[in-house]
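Listing S7. Sequence submitted for prediction.
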Amino acid sequence: MSVRTLLIGTIVCLCVSQVSLAGVIEYPLDYPEQRVREIGPLLESEHSQVDIYVENTLDPLRWKDWYVEIWVPDNAADVLTIDVDYDNTANHSDPVVYISDIPLAPITGIAPRWDGYKGFYASTFEAEWEQYGTSPEGSQEPYPIGNPAWVSFHFQVDVPEPDPFGYYIMDKCIPEPASLSLLALGAMALLRKRRAA
């Protein structure tokens, strides 16, 4: 085996181990106009800093809402906050908005997704977290950038080896209220038409 081959093999091994240690996980679109993503529940063996990138259809006139659950073994340190950013670049190099220390609440009242695990969650569908989503471009609401190409979840997971941690993500691109009103009016008009027939 030549020195060059050995050197290339070593570099490849280092690169692979670096990707593994970084805990970078990408979920690209399944089809171009996908506006709803449901990911998991999944157990993930990566520990420490984990970055999850979820791609959605870019739309400046939509809202971005998401729900995330993090599950850790009972013997792990509590996961109390996450960071989220919104980005329109393919390599996630230039976030439009970066939000740090989003609080998580314990999941109560439902059975654990995995035996011996405890869960935490945050949901922009609820009033407590709604300011962490985005609003349509040009609106007066917080973060008026519309639905970005990527929403990224970054969390620190302190899990003893060899236990994995778990996660579940529901990510939605939602019409702005004016569009929702038009949809409702259209539905009412259709109902009246059917009744009249």
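Caption to Listing S7: primary sequence and predicted structure tokens for the chain studied. Residues 119 and 127 are 20 Å apart (CA to CA). The two ends are 82 Å apart (CA to CA).
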